[in-house]
Amino acid sequence: MDLKQLKALVTIAETENMTKAAEILNIVQPAISRQIRLLEEDLGAILFERGRQGMILNDEGKTFVEYARRILNEIEKAKAEIRPSAGTLGGIVNIGLLPSTSDLLSSMLVRNLRKNYPGIKIRISTGYAGHMQNWLENGEIDIALLYASRTSPALRLQPLVEEGLWFVGPPGSQLRADQAIEIKNIVDKPLILPSPPHGIRNLVNQASQLKNLQLDVIVETNSMGVQKKLVLDGLGYTILPSIAIVDDIAQGVLEAAPLSDAELSRTIVLALPSARNTTSSIRCVVNELLQCIKTSIENGNWSAAKWIAD
């Protein structure tokens, strides 16, 4: 088994066509066909269904191609780390950001890295905490922002930010940033919330159970954009962290008030894999990410957030 075979596997999986894959890899079709045959012989398993529809991965192929992608990705990152361009620090760093933090942090982070570490390339993924924890443990990303409630011996966690949750409604709902409300006062409101086990939904469920309240959840969606759109269209209310609604409040698109219940706050942590080496490129990206978060809080762009890192 060699890298050419893995590249052939991944390229055919993506194109589902032997001829197109050969063109992309700039080799003749018999050569790529031979690489796949040798790979299947080495594994002792057929990886593709071959038919009129092209080359389609079977179950064994779908399993192995994910390992192949990770191997090729790790080699690409290692080459970039060992041979940085123009004598500068180099490397590829994969970052995972929570959907509620991505809009505020991604542009600032990219801008700072281009200025201070132009040799570092970054790949930004967004996802919910549970997904990103799996990506970290599987080696698909190097750094992530998670909720503190999601712990694992496979991860090193550093608490960064404490942030309260806000009750969000459409324009005209009379919600104000300087008038906090309690969860008991929203039991009669139709709610649009993420489905369990989303971190915010868990906090809301715990707070309502603690106070023996029955909330009226009319819609569940794990899309923050859908939450906001349904609220904007007057179909209900939602609960979000302040960072997710800064621009909406400033533009008058939505109205919101902080929830005063102590249980309705979240802690955001920086997470890195325990068993993997933290390269110099990763350390630099981590430092820039932390600075972006601190700057956002100090400038008032991340309202109701408190920096708690040492």
TrEMBL record:
PROSITE patterns: HTH_LYSR. Belongs to the LysR transcriptional regulatory family. Residues 1-58 form the HTH lysR-type domain. Pfam families: HTH_1 (PF00126), LysR_substrate (PF03466). Keywords: Activator, DNA-binding, Transcription, Transcription regulation. PANTHER family: NITROGEN ASSIMILATION REGULATORY PROTEIN NAC, TRANSCRIPTIONAL REGULATORY PROTEIN NAC-RELATED. Coiled coil: none annotated. This is LysR family transcriptional regulator. The keyword Ubl conjugation does not apply.
